[in-house]
C-alpha cells in the first residue's frame, strides 16, 4: 500500500514540471486564484464560487472580486447606459 504524499512534495513537483513545460513558474495556488477569478468573470454566483474554493462569500469578494476585469467593464457599461442621454 502506498502512503499519501506530503503536500509540499506535490507542490514542488508541480512547480518544477510546470516551469519545464510552460517556461515560467506557476504555483498550484495561482491556478486556484485563476479558477475563482474566471468563474466570477463568467457570471458564476459568488456563493457558488465561494463554496468551490472553501471560502465564505465575504472573503471571496474581498480577495478575488478585485481581480476581475469583466466586473469593472460591466459596471462602467451599466453606468454608461444609465446616464446615456443625460446632459451634465
Keywords summarizing the entry:
88 residues, 68% helix, mainly alpha
Describe this structure in a few short sentences.
By secondary structure, the protein is mainly alpha-helical. It has 5 helices and no strands. The model has no long low-confidence stretch (mean pLDDT 82).
Structural overview:
The chain is mostly helical and 88 residues long. The chain is built from 5 helices and no strands. The chain has helices spanning 7-22, 28-41, 46-53, 57-63, 69-83. The termini are far apart.
In terms of structural class, how would the helical and strand content be classed? mainly alpha
Q: List low-confidence stretches.
A: none
Strand tally, please? 0
Helix-strand sequence: HHHHH
**Oligomerization category of the chains in this entry:** single chain
Q: Strand-residue fraction?
A: under 5%
Give the termini separation: 73 Å
In percent, how helical is the residue content? 55-70%
Q: What Rg do the Cα atoms give?
A: 19 Å
Number of helices: 5
What kind of sheet is the major sheet?
A: none
Shape: elongated
- What's the overall average pLDDT, rounded? 82
Amino acid at each position: 500500500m502506498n502512503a499519501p504524499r506530503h503536500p509540499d512534495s506535490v507542490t514542488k513537483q508541480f512547480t518544477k514540471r510546470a516551469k519545464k513545460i510552460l517556461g515560467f513558474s506557476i504555483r498550484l495556488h495561482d491556478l486556484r486564484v485563476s479558477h475563482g477569478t474566471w468563474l466570477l468573470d463568467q457570471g458564476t454566483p459568488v456563493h457558488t464560487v465561494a463554496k468551490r474554493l472553501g471560502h465564505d462569500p465575504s472573503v471571496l469578494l474581498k480577495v478575488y472580486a478585485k481581480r476581475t476585469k469583466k466586473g469593472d467593464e460591466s459596471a462602467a457599461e451599466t453606468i454608461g447606459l444609465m446616464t446615456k442621454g443625460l446632459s451634465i
